[in-house]
Amino acid sequence: MSESSAKRILAVIASRNFRDEEYLVPRQVFDEAGVATTTCSSSPGTAIGKLGATVEVNLVLGDAVTNEAWADHDAVVFVGGPGSKRYWDDADAQRLAREFDVAGKLVCAICSAPIILARAGLLKGRSATCFDGDRAELERGGATYTGGEVTLDGRFVTGSGPTAADAFAHTIVERLGAGTSRDAGTSRDAGMSRDAGMSRDAGMTA
Prior knowledge:
CATH architecture: 3-Layer(aba) Sandwich
Number of domains: 1
Helix content: 25-40%
CATH superfamily: Class I glutamine amidotransferase (GATase) domain
Shape: globular
Low-confidence stretches: 180-206
Order of helices and strands: EEHEEEEHEHEHEHEEEH
CATH class: Alpha Beta
Distance between the termini: 15 Å
Number of strands: 12
């Protein structure tokens, strides 16, 4: 894949207590697919996961929004974990999600992070999944909770938690049209769902 055609993902993590696997597993999948990842958080320096993983932050969330540093990325991925709840009502996080939506780009979140999208008003009338303990919050935002591992609805990809991290990442790579999935169970039809809760959107382009 040439540098000019390489896809880029903006991964948003909490500065403390993001869920390690939900960042590290997708990051490996993205790297293997030739997708570049920019790590974004509310604070500069080193972010620390719930299980102790340390990740260097490339971009501060406020700068990503105010300086439009998000604009050269093809997808945003909000990583879950208990720390992600600080972004549920965060104006910058919600604005970032809306900017990607308005630009027609992929908007993704896993575990507790889909609530950011719900509170930003982006999941009304859509199917989505999340950490099962946050189901009421998801539904309060107008989404239909599928309970699936990964749910794809148009340009929105949501995942249920750490065990879904690999499938979540491969779904994103497929929707971006970057690389080839390692998951033999994945359909090559870009509109096909991974579980019964996913919806088709044949009109979506990467």
